[in-house]
Amino acid sequence: MAQKETIIVIGAGVIGLSTALHLQQFLSPSQQILLVARDWPNTTSVNYASPWAGAHYRPVPGSSPQAIREEKQARRTYEHFRHEASVPGSGVAWVEGVEHLENPPAEYLDERALGNYTHLDGFRKLEASELPEGVKWGVRYNTFTINSPVYCAYMLRRFVIKGGMVKEYTLANVQEAFYLAENVRTVVNCSGVGFGDSKSFIIRGQTCLVRNPCSVTLTRQNSDGTWSFCIPRPLEGGTIIGGTKQVNNWDPNPSLETRETLLRNASKWFPFSAESGGKFDVIRDIVGRRPAREGGMRIEVEKLGEGRTVVHGYGAAGRGYEISWGVAEDLVKLIRAEGLVLEKASL
Ligand SMILES: Cc1cc2nc3c(=O)[nH]c(=O)nc-3n(C[C@H](O)[C@H](O)[C@H](O)COP(=O)(O)OP(=O)(O)OC[C@H]3O[C@@H](n4cnc5c(N)ncnc54)[C@H](O)[C@@H]3O)c2cc1C
Ligand SMILES: *[C@@H]1O[C@H](CO)[C@@H](O)[C@H](O)[C@H]1NC(C)=O
Ligand SMILES: *[C@@H]1O[C@H](CO)[C@@H](O)[C@H](O)[C@H]1NC(C)=O
Ligand SMILES: *[C@@H]1O[C@H](CO)[C@@H](O)[C@H](O)[C@H]1NC(C)=O
Ligand SMILES: *[C@@H]1O[C@H](CO)[C@@H](O)[C@H](O)[C@H]1NC(C)=O
């Protein structure tokens, strides 16, 4: 009998895990998937973005090609999360989402911007009388928050139960991936910030995980360009209070001053229960690096010759969870179009 063909997926972040899981249903009986990564949901590292995400789902109005592509991926992910939220232990849950903008940028004032929100259950624009002082634009809707380390561990568990294989390994370059198993012709590159793409860059995010419960996820865009948000983590995972967006800032250490600013703003603006009295019970500071890329994610097939194909899927920046399932579907569609797996799902 011929040796089985192994498809390599690089990366055990939310993008690699979603893609590996979705790809499993398109394997022919002579194919298997090996997930290869340096970092896994049982570990943490500043260079592994996924466990540090809040994470919540919110639309991002915009009319650039990147914004339009992400909008489509986000909508499909919203539908996927609707299903995941019904699975006990997935780490995904429904929650009320609120946005408050002090000084809405042009893309929000565009009448069409509301079109980016219409897919959300219970969406409505807030009346002027409902807005807190200093806020000019606001919306509410039903959305999802994700306990990100729990959700990643849950996806990995499902991948393994369905026959997926894993290997902890740090790759030095692209060629190496083709030698990690016998008979590899397809490598799916979900390496996050990647290694060597000159368009890739990082956006540092500092947040603070607190024990104080909060019943909504609220995002406030301040007139000085900063963002404040609270994200309750399902399954009693505490609440994330954020957060900074610092382009190309490589500081791995949390700043105490930043923590204090975040918490001071949170006590003013977010509906924490009265008994906390504006005091926070801090579990830990978080510093993560969002894997960004000029022009957005690279979702692309690269032919290396000798029958070798790399399918790239990296550079999700601050939206990896929001667009995760749509991205996985787009990557699997490319792989199917190349004839590298079955055309139709084998369930
Ligand atoms: C503070 C913060 C808050 C955030 N909040 C949200 C939010 O609310 N909503 C949202 O949607 N997103 C949010 N994000 C963004 C989200 O975390 C990222 O978009 C997402 O995690 C990216 O996933 P990824 O799989 O592409 O990369 P990663 O999670 O970084 O995974 C990359 C994988 O590739 C592996 N890898 C890399 N290089 C190599 C190598 N050389 N050899 C082997 N393996 C390698 C890594 O080990 C890892 O397994 C937030 C991010 C931060 C930092
Ligand atoms: C999203 O908003 C932008 C304007 O901010 C608009 O150009 C675009 O058409 C909207 N998308 C949808 C699907 O309505
Ligand atoms: C973490 O998980 C990976 C993949 O399942 C495994 O290879 C590794 O041994 C685990 N590491 C620890 C510290 O448990
Ligand atoms: C994955 O993408 C990065 C770019 O960030 C590139 O440098 C690397 O060689 C790619 N890996 C593989 C196996 O193609
Ligand atoms: C918090 O509020 C202050 C003003 O009170 C502001 O200067 C700061 O940038 C805000 N932003 C964040 C992210 O905390």
Automatic annotation (TrEMBL):
Domain FAD dependent oxidoreductase: 7-333
Gene3D superfamilies: D-Amino Acid Oxidase, subunit A, domain 2, NAD(P)-binding Rossmann-like Domain
GO molecular function list: D-amino-acid oxidase activity; FAD binding
A GO CC annotation given for this chain: cytoplasm
Record keywords, A-Z: FAD, Flavoprotein, Membrane, Oxidoreductase, Transmembrane, Transmembrane helix
InterPro entries linked: DAO, FAD-dep_OxRdtase
Membrane-spanning residues: 7-27
Classification via Pfam families: DAO (PF01266)
Cofactor(s) recorded in Swiss-Prot or TrEMBL: FAD
GO biological process: D-amino acid catabolic process
Family stated for the protein in its record: Belongs to the DAMOX/DASOX family.
Protein name stated in the entry: FAD dependent oxidoreductase domain-containing protein
